[in-house]
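User: Here's a chain of 282 residues. Predict its fold as tokens.
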Amino acid sequence: MEEAEVSATGNQDPEVTEASAAAQEPGAGEQKGRAETEEELSALTEEDLPRAIEAVLFCAGEPVTIRELAELFELGVHDVRSAVERLREEYIDSGRAFRIEDISGGIQLLTLPDFDPWLRSMYQKRRSSRLSPAALETLAIVAYKGPITRAELESIRGVQCAPTLNTLLDRELIRVAGKAPGLGRPLLYHTTPMFLESFGLDSLKDLPEPETPPSREEREGLEVENEEEPATSKPATEAAEEDAVREEAAPFEAAGHDSPPGDEAETGPGAEQEQEPGDLES
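Assistant: Prediction complete.
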């Protein structure tokens, strides 16, 4: 009986035996499916690459780097970058409602600002998730001054920032970037890639330049100019006042020149005094 079983097993087809053994190996089906998928991805042509990049960006919902796309399609970085630039030009030439923008070190599909009113009206229910003015002020300080400690933040704002920092941490707009040297080793806060994505920035270098207060030398120069202005404008002011006085006195001077000298003598104080005795006699 044992010999019969052995002979029966030995007469099996070698191909069937290999297939059954491969089927019993763990993960064999997954590897086969992965190999087929890789073959399909590597079969992209130069014309299909822009459409494939468009599909990835449309579904990603977040910035994707050129290197990630190159690894995904198993192509060179230069080829992927050229395809992205062709997509940019195509969107602009065809007047699409979205563009490919450089965001947080990658690229992302974003709608044009012209359609902002309609998008806002569609997402009115999300108004409660907007940041408060205090949170925006704190976030701006972290963006421009970070890494920064909570004590430094509070000294700039003049109020406690612990609740606001917790809100920004929950929104993943800031992160703990380490500890500052010194007593107590306070935590340092800095911005995150989510901050760049939320505000449409490629890096912190794209932040607008803040209005800096004038330096000490500039302030001293302004003070000197303010002190010199009254001195230089005083003669002009006096000249204007003198001209106004002359204009007001001109009619009276003209009336005085038109009247004869005798009339001036008669109307003077002496004439009045000379007439007083005559009036008394009459």
